[in-house]
């Protein structure tokens, strides 16, 4: 069997690894695999579209592959640069490089006349070639093509950049106003870079409210409205993705519980109560602005 993998980001690399080793776990012949990557390095978006001080928002405990953990002395949250090195170390450890073709663009994939697929690609030398295979795994990710909204009057703004074009703090206008559209992970990162730059004003825009969450659970402050907001600054703060108070969201539920609104109402109360007890607000962990409206801010609306 022959399989083509398109894309050398995290998904492509781990797909290649498991296809290479499938015959060790199943009664099948070794699979012939080729991975095609149009850029000159592995890593995908983490290599091509990151910016100054970029750091992963998921901790190393959940981000790294279970068969190749991060170093014990790595910080809880890897920088983009360190994560790229980790992916290269992963490729080294599992001997993936012989199957990886860098600077190689897949131009089309078509059905073969006798079944299977024909992958048409252009190599680093500019020569068009093709490779016949039985299956294709597309691992090109979600963030290759920038999505720029059509905002009325945008053309009158002096400088407009999509985050994929942004690299360093010094791109912000000194003493100027920066407007950040979007309150996702990247939007928050860019806003923080802008606030910590010599800008005059930073405006963070959201369309329908947002639910913010820190990467680390802040040191709990029990009943801050009654007992004040003093905390222990030297107390360890755990990554939020390994300490989240959502057992019903992160574990199996039998259908008779999963499909009843009572379950989600109970979970909703628990989460909001925990937020209030620890930070004094139910909008989020220490979140006081930009909250979701009542109809959307419910555990059953999580996607």
Automatic annotation (TrEMBL):
Q: Which residue ranges traverse the bilayer?
A: none
Which top-level group of life is the source organism from? Eukaryota
Mind telling me which Gene3D superfamilies this protein's record contains?
FAD/NAD(P)-binding domain
Could you tell me which Pfam families the record lists for this protein?
A: FMO-like (PF00743)
GO MF assignments? flavin adenine dinucleotide binding; N,N-dimethylaniline monooxygenase activity; NADP binding
Note the SUPFAM superfamilies from the entry.
Answer: FAD/NAD(P)-binding domain
Instruction: Report keywords, A-Z.
Output: FAD, Flavoprotein, Monooxygenase, NADP, Oxidoreductase
Q: Which family does it belong to?
A: Belongs to the FMO family.
Q: What is this protein called?
A: Dimethylaniline monooxygenase
Tell me the organism's taxonomic lineage. Answer: Eukaryota, Fungi, Dikarya, Ascomycota, Pezizomycotina
């Amino acid at each position: 069997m022959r399989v083509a993998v398109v894309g050398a980001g995290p998904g492509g690399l781990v797909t290649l690894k498991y296809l290479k080793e499938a015959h060790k776990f199943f009664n099948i012949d070794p699979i012939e695999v080729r991975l095609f990557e149009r850029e000159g390095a592995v890593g995908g978006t983490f290599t091509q579209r990151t910016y100054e001080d970029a750091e992963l928002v998921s901790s190393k405990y959940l981000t790294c592959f279970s068969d190749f953990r991060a170093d014990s002395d790595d910080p809880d949250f890897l920088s983009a640069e360190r994560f790229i090195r980790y992916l290269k170390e992963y490729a080294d450890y599992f001997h993936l490089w012989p199957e990886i073709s860098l600077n190689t663009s897949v131009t089309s994939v078509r059905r073969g006349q006798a079944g299977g697929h024909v992958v048409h690609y252009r190599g680093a030398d500019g020569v068009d070639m093709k490779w016949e295979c039985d299956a294709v795994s597309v691992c090109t990710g979600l963030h290759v093509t920038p999505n720029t909204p059509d905002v009325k009057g945008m053309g009158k703004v002096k400088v407009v950049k999509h985050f994929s074009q942004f690299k360093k703090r010094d791109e912000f206008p000194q003493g100027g106003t920066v407007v950040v559209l979007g309150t996702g992970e990247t939007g928050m990162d860019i806003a923080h870079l802008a606030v910590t730059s010599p800008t005059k004003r930073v405006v963070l825009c959201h369309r329908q409210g947002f639910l913010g969450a820190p990467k680390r659970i802040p040191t709990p402050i029990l009943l801050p409205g009654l007992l004040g907001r003093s905390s222990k600054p030297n107390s360890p703060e755990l990554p939020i993705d390994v300490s989240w108070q959502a057992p019903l969201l992160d574990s199996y539920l039998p259908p008779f519980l999963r499909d009843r609104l009572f379950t989600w109402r109970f979970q909703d109360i628990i989460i909001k109560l925990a937020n209030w007890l620890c930070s004094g607000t139910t909008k989020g962990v220490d979140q006081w602005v930009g909250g979701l409206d009542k109809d959307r801010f419910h555990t059953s609306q999580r996607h």
